[in-house]
């Protein structure tokens, strides 16, 4: 009995050995400059891409206008109100092409795969991405940047 | 024992002291080991010959003397090593006035190197390469922009950790010219192993020349190709992260490229700095150093040639 239990727990241990898989080379679709007819975000629900997007959000100073999602100079991103649509393609278009009243166009300025990473993060602010993918720690709380 | 990344090949005052301490520990511990094993073997041989242990006043005294001597020697040896260790730490930890100050900031996964100066236009910003004059005491201040790192240039000094939110410092003084390698010595994420830097120790005259040159803005493009390259660089995503003094690129997320062509490596010691590696790095850095912050970029052949020609001209 105890031997079977031991064997079972050994198998359980081995099963938990799988390393977290991260695809670190951007998928080809992430290179596309224009949003095509089926504009699926290659990073939808991808926790690593989401945390990268979160980092880029601070580094590219999106916080300068949107603050940390709460809005200020630019609209809030953590509410459920979407002026220009909440689908990945619409959010991509807002970042890449810009919007009236101040949102600049970042298309060509930021590599497409980074725009997609920002899209996952922005959507996650309104819980439109799987909650399990969202980082529990916010980057703006870092001591020094 | 020689090597560009070796604590056994000291090239500086501090490393020499650490080297001496290392030898002291090595030989004292080796002697202790030999004596211990010798007594152990002796006990094995003697123990096999004698079946009944003889216990009388004489043997008791002999044992007391033996154990007492052993304990005494151990205490003296340990205290001696402790004293030597503290003395070395004290000797390499305290210094007079720094002739030169260098700030090294760790990033995932590269080193930002700054030579501060009271006049803003004389500050030098470079990456993954430290130049130092020989025979000059230098204060190195280390900090980090993200996670914990550790700066380890074994030919010059021991490791010094880079702790988020705090500035650590240590002193180095090279006593001979040479090119050495430094490495991140505290696990800091996916590309920790590819976070190296080059240390160039050179004569004060050579260092002055280097310093003067690094203070100049980036050279202007001389050919049509380089000119197109600069225009491309300034219109592509490059400018979001990199700075080139004398142009409109002044971002600080990635390494400063003002004198990129004078550096010997790319991507923090990962690649030799040549045309092929530079092109590959620009096009698909994630394939070369997975997880690093430099994104893959979409450039057509003409643009790539122009940008590389421009970057290669940044001497």
Task: Describe what this molecule looks like in 3D.
- The complex is a heterodimer of chains A (145) and B (315).
- With 145 residues, chain A is mainly alpha-helical.
- Chain A has helices spanning 2-15, 47-59, 63-66, 88-97, 112-125.
- In chain A, helix 2 (47-59) packs across helix 5 (112-125) and helix 4 crosses helix 5 (112-125).
- The radius of gyration of chain A is 19 Å and the shape is elongated.
- The mean pLDDT of chain A is 82.
- The radius of gyration of chain B is 27 Å and the shape is elongated.
- Chain B is 39% helix and 19% strand.
- In chain B, helix 1 packs antiparallel against helix 2, helix 4 (224-235) packs across helix 6 and helix 5 packs across helix 6.
- Chain B has helices at 13-49, 57-93, 204-215, 224-235, 275-288, 301-312, and strands spanning 100-107, 110-115, 124-127, 129-133, 138-144, 149-152, 159-162, 168-172, 178-184, 196-202, 265-266, 271-272.
- The longest helix of chain B is centred in the first third of the chain and has 37 residues, at 13-49.
- Chains A and B meet through helix 5 of A and helix 5 of B.
């Amino acid at each position: 009995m105890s031997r079977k239990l031991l064997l079972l727990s050994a198998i359980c241990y081995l099963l938990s050995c799988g390393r977290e898989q991260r695809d670190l080379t951007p998928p080809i679709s992430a290179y596309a400059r224009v949003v095509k007819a089926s504009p699926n975000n290659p990073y939808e629900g991808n926790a690593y891409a989401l945390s990268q997007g979160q980092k880029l959000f601070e580094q590219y100073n999106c916080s300068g206008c949107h603050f940390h999602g709460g809005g200020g100079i630019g609209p809030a991103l953590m509410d459920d109100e979407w002026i220009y649509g909440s689908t990945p393609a619409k959010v991509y278009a807002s970042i890449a092409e810009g919007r009236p009243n101040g949102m600049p166009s970042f298309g060509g300025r930021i590599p497409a795969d980074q725009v997609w990473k920002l899209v996952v993060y922005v959507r996650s602010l309104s819980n439109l991405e799987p909650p399990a993918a969202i980082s529990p720690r916010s980057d703006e709380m870092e001591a020094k940047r | 024992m020689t090597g560009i990344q070796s604590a056994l090949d000291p090239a500086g005052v501090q490393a020499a002291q650490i080297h001496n301490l290392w030898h002291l520990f090595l030989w004292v511990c080796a002697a202790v080991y030999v004596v211990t094993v010798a007594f152990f073997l002796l006990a094995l041989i003697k123990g096999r010959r004698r079946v009944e242990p003889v216990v009388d006043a004489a043997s008791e005294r002999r044992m007391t003397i033996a154990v007492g001597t052993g304990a005494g020697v151990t205490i003296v040896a340990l205290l001696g090593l402790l004293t030597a260790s503290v003395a070395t730490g004290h000797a390499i930890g305290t210094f007079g006035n720094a002739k030169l100050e260098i700030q090294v900031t760790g990033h995932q996964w590269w080193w930002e190197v700054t030579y501060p100066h009271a006049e803003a236009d004389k500050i030098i910003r470079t990456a993954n390469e430290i130049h130092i004059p020989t025979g000059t005491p230098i204060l190195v201040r280390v900090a980090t922009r993200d996670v914990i790192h550790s700066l380890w240039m074994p030919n010059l000094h021991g490791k010094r950790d880079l702790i988020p939110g705090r500035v650590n410092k240590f002193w180095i003084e090279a006593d001979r010219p040479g090119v050495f390698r430094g490495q991140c010595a505290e696990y800091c994420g996916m590309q920790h192993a590819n976070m190296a830097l080059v240390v160039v120790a050179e004569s004060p005259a050579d260092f002055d020349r280097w310093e003067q040159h690094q203070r100049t803005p980036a050279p202007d493009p001389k050919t049509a190709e380089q000119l197109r390259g600069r225009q491309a660089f300034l219109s592509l995503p490059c400018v979001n992260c990199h700075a080139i003094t004398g142009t409109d690129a002044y971002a600080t997320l990635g390494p400063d490229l003002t004198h990129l062509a004078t550096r010997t490596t790319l991507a923090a010691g990962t690649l030799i700095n040549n045309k092929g590696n530079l092109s590959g790095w620009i096009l698909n850095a994630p394939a070369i150093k997975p997880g690093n912050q430099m994104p893959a970029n979409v450039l057509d052949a003409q643009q790539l040639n122009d940008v590389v020609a421009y970057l290669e001209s940044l001497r």
